[in-house]
Amino acid sequence: MDTGTHLVMGLGLFGLAQLDPVVASDLATAHAVLLGTVVGSQTPDIDTLYRLKGNPAYIRNHRGWTHSLPMWLIWPTLLTLVLHFVFPASNTAHVWLWCFIAVLVHVFIDLFNSYGTQALRPFSNKWVAWDIINIFDPFLFILHIVGFVIWWFFPSYAGFIFSSIYIVIGLYLIWRTCVHHRWLRWVKKQVNAPGSYTVIPTARWGQWNCVYETQTEVRMGEIRSGKLLWTGQLTTEFNHHPATHHSKQAEAIDAFLSFTHYGYPQVIQHPFGYEVRWLDVRYHHKKHFPFVAVAILDNRYNILHSFVGWISEGQLEKKIYEMMSTTNK
């Protein structure tokens, strides 16, 4: 999920922690738990620092090892050790428990969007993404804000308020899961042809994106007002092009493919060589692919330049123009 959602969930978990008698009765422990749930709800996303090493490193590592099974225990332990020095009188066991819950909730809720995590590492590097809610879900965010307002007026009922909120969230996720599977079955029935089907959430409850993949083509569409609207189509003819094969040697393309199984190449030939664009079809929107990787190769398929990232259509064209200008020199 986005940083804002993780933040409000961290604060909400502190409200829930008021059900813990030790937290509710001990001021030092309460202060430590407040920091623990807020910081713990953000800690798995510390891999954002990989941005300093460039987009390929960030894309390869974001939601990777920092969300893995061992880190579910390591993060709360490290955080509890730090909090023990700040609040030596706090109850270490209860601080660790709530830090652990914050980290666990962070990883768990991340599984429900289309980006997903590598939560099964080190046993599997597979990306787990359930495609149930958008990376920013207005309902989850607003529900927490409502909880904070009620908490302000009824400070003694924090535990009851947020236990009720998290029950509602649990029911909401179950409902969204049922809706997702219902739309997936519906799309399969509408197309009524063999292939691979994916239904992807958006920020709007009534609108979903979908992807239909076959050996020869991939189609992108939207479900709006109970209707299936196809918004784009790509051919798979470039999958086996020599330039496509050699483009995978570029660091940017390798990082892109390590993250997504929905990448499709498009090859454009130029006098100096080839331009290979890898497009993640999950995020197709208004005829644009915001998550893309590009490799520029010469006529002998040597990598000249490469790029990967989230980018607007105008910025992408400018980036490619700059890479080609350098190549032509």
Automatic annotation (TrEMBL):
Pfam families: YdjM
InterPro entries for the chain: Transcription_regulator, YdjM-like
Superkingdom: Bacteria
Keyword line: Membrane, Transmembrane, Transmembrane helix
TM region(s), chain numbering: 69-89, 95-115, 127-151, 157-175
Protein name: Inner membrane protein
Species per Swiss-Prot/TrEMBL record: Baia soyae
